[in-house]
Design goal:
The protein is an alpha+beta fold and about 280 residues long. The chain contains four helices and 13 strands. It has a five-stranded antiparallel β-sheet with strand order 3-6-1-13-8, with no helix packed on it. Strands 4-5-2-12 form a four-stranded antiparallel β-sheet, with no helix packed on it. A four-stranded antiparallel β-sheet has the order 10-9-7-11, with helices on one face. A hairpin with a 4-residue loop joins strand 9 and strand 10. The radius of gyration is 23 Å and the shape is globular.
């Protein structure tokens, strides 16, 4: 009996070891061979704010289930601020608060991430948007553009691709031209696309993130369009129509709003930095 129990215990331990090994190899991806390394990235946000001496609240968008990556660690640094984390449809936010803030305050957020095999965007199915009210000539232009794009597309991904290509490079007289009044930046193009996709009842949103490079200070935010085809979120480059996110893009927020907002003061600076490290087994 004792030998039998010993063999059962040994088998369970071996099974647990195999499960942990499989999880590390398939999900986490860090090195399994001794003395080998895999990259991890530190992403830091430095916020500088000018306060009026009264209550102040600062909200910073931070990663929540970023596709292609997993969060290994997070740190929040401030001087005598309260801290809370909140989740909504756009992702997560770190919220600092203080009853009496000094004239100048600095806050820090740091996360450490690594590539995670098979990590996908959130699976919740969004509701169908309602077509926005439009006055002329925008109503006629939107109807014409949606009709023309529908004729040269077969499904939601191809519809989104054709639409962003029309927005990014319209011909003279193209009905898409009237919707470029917000500018030619990637964010402006995504906003125009999300607005027009509402006319086609296609759920869409902006996705903003930072590219993970070896080392970079003052890293810029990059924006992609995301559309939902009924089963999953499909990402589209707003300038080329190419589908898919870059492998090195860490998604910080799923909204076209600012990365940080301040109530009771003014955000005088926001700097993002990226540093690559080697993680060894």
């Amino acid at each position: 009996m004792k030998n039998r129990q010993l063999w059962i215990a040994a088998g369970l331990l071996a099974l647990a070891g195999l499960v942990i090994f499989h999880y590390k190899a398939v999900r986490l991806g860090p090195p399994l061979v001794p003395d080998s390394t895999s990259p991890v990235w530190s992403v830091e946000a430095r916020l500088r704010l000018d306060a009026a001496g009264g209550p102040v609240k600062v909200a910073l968008r931070i990663p929540r289930d970023p596709p292609g990556f997993a969060v290994l660690d997070e740190h929040f640094v401030s001087y005598r601020f309260g801290l809370d984390t909140q989740s909504d449809g756009a992702g997560r936010a770190a919220v600092w608060s203080k009853r009496r803030a000094q004239a100048q305050e600095t806050l820090y957020y740091r996360t450490v991430v690594f590539a995670e095999n098979g990590a996908q965007d959130e699976a919740a199915v969004p509701p169908f948007p309602e077509p926005p009210p439009r006055e002329e000539p925008f109503r006629s232009a939107a109807d014409a553009l949606i009709r023309e794009v529908r004729q040269v597309s077969a499904d939601v991904p191809t519809f989104a691709t054709q639409l962003v290509r029309r927005l990014a490079d319209p011909d003279p007289g193209d009905p898409a031209e009237i919707f470029r009044s917000g500018g030619e930046s990637r964010l402006a193009l995504v906003r125009a696309a999300v607005d027009l996709l509402s006319d086609a009842r296609i759920p869409a949103r902006a996705v903003q993130g930072v590219e993970l490079v070896d080392s970079r200070r003052d890293a810029p935010l990059r924006t992609w369009l995301a559309v939902h085809d009924g089963e999953a979120w499909i990402h589209v480059d707003p300038e080329t129509g190419e589908r898919g996110l870059p492998r090195d893009l860490l998604v910080l927020t799923r909204t076209d709003g600012p990365l940080a907002e301040v109530a009771g003061g003014t955000l005088s600076g926001l700097e993002l930095s990226v540093i690559r490290h080697a993680y060894g087994s």
